[in-house]
Amino acid sequence: MERKGNLMTYRPDIKVFDATIRDGGLVNSFRFSDEFVKALYLANLRAGVDYMEFGYLASTDIFKEEDFGDWKFCKEASLRRIMGNNETDMKIAVMADVGRCNLERDLLPKEESVIDMVRIATYIHTMPAAIEMIEYCHSLGYETTCNIMAVSKANTADIEVALEMLCDSSVDVIYLVDSYGSLFPEQIQRLTKLYLEHAEASGKKVGMHAHNNQQLAFANTIEACSMGASYLDATIGSMGRGAGNCAMELLLGFLKNPKYNITPVLKFYEDYILKLREQGEVWGYDIQYLLTGKMNLHPSSAIAFTADKRTDYAEFYHSIFDMEA
Amino acid sequence: MERKGNLMTYRPDIKVFDATIRDGGLVNSFRFSDEFVKALYLANLRAGVDYMEFGYLASTDIFKEEDFGDWKFCKEASLRRIMGNNETDMKIAVMADVGRCNLERDLLPKEESVIDMVRIATYIHTMPAAIEMIEYCHSLGYETTCNIMAVSKANTADIEVALEMLCDSSVDVIYLVDSYGSLFPEQIQRLTKLYLEHAEASGKKVGMHAHNNQQLAFANTIEACSMGASYLDATIGSMGRGAGNCAMELLLGFLKNPKYNITPVLKFYEDYILKLREQGEVWGYDIQYLLTGKMNLHPSSAIAFTADKRTDYAEFYHSIFDMEA
Known about the structure:
Number of domains of chain A: 2
Structural class of chain A: alpha/beta
Order of helices and strands of chain A: EHHEHEHEHEHEHEHEHHHHH
Largest sheet of chain A: 8 strands, parallel, barrel
Oligomer: homodimer
Number of helices of chain A: 13
Helix content of chain A: 40-55%
Strand order of the largest sheet of chain A: 1-2-3-4-5-6-7-8
């Protein structure tokens, strides 16, 4: 299989996508201080990051505002409090989960919003609802991605149907998402190739969103990249649900485009990420996440094991054998 | 490039090699309790591990015995205290560094020793001395490997000469060693192919020893494996110098041979590895190791940064720019 690009040059089509607030918000219920979010916005700008995702467009009909920080809802006023009118070339993204938002009420027309891109997260069986949301976002003037979750549990034939549906839609980027951190680089290679075969034929791009259950988030991201994926998700310090994501500092250390600069990310890490850890927030690779990843399971049981401060890994391993695989 | 084997089956030529005491000993100056080492020996036996490495055959002319635990020297009496006559099918290995041992004095003939394999660690410029040691070990009846260190700083033409020298020797296994944790899977793929082209033509095997500076130790190990490397080094909990090694629990979670069993490794991790961490031993992936890996530098400056409990990563990054790359 032919790789695109090599280790000495760079591909200008690559976009670095920071998901620290969105995926990291799953760790602390989106309760980030404004100081944190503003410092991250500036760090991303200085680092040359192409897109920064702020959080979810969750509906207040479904989630109580008092249970979460602002970035669960990403109201226009919250976003502008951080970035004014975002007079920069870094684009702003938010995520919308199928069945958990009210876009008709909550999403402004693009010309009234600092948001540039809406990422539609869907399971494969809710693809028609995702397509409807994608078309609605485009009708308002937004860029979109579709993030098909949990493909490690889907059949290739179903994935192909989903890709065909997306290729007939207005979506800009189709994301390969390793929700359970269960995929190995060889599988990422095959899936990226499959996604690209469909995407390229209809002028769309492919993105990669990895999880670090088996310490493969960075390896899988650069594998997808070298096969031709161009939108690459990362979070500073890997902050994200469970085992976390591809670390921004690893990704920027790898990419050769001189526009990227790792130093602001290192500075943000030492000034802000370390503080979150000191305050007791817990995420990142650990044995329990390796085990749910290996078993291709949702990380919820491993997250509960972590919250309970358990360390009986062997017992945990045997307990998850009984789960629906 | 063709892969050997696939993700559904297993290759019987694969040997899992536990280096926990040897590489982990670089963390605590080899001061492991006998209880720890005996429990590890039993865990490896139960897990189906093929080789267990105990430590170095360091010369007491060069190193003072009071500065280290027993596994710096691996005397026959120390080994037998743990395993008796090792009446098992797990083989026992030790490492001998070029220029740091006195094999004529310290290595018994094979029939008087529980050691099965001597691994000769060498830089590329000391290959003639390594070959002499390999031939001496074979004359005493041992299996051998040659671990060529720091190849990320060597020129391909020199690596090829070294491989030719080894192919003309009695060595059994040639190890690809990513000493600085600086190699990406694409490079591991190319190097494994190069090593195998030489090794296969002369009936030798290829091994992989990875470091986790860029969270790629496991990814690089399975990449080398899928290209045809058959001796795979790992340590429980990644215990090893600096960023540590490929984690045994990740490797056994990946391999499909039913002889391997992850549970004894999980149990050892919870009973013994966690305790070492509680006692203050520090190793494993962290930003400073990512930075020396990215810069293709020996991890010594990152190890000092860790020992000093520093967290000014951005400053550290700029300080290593001046180092010899």
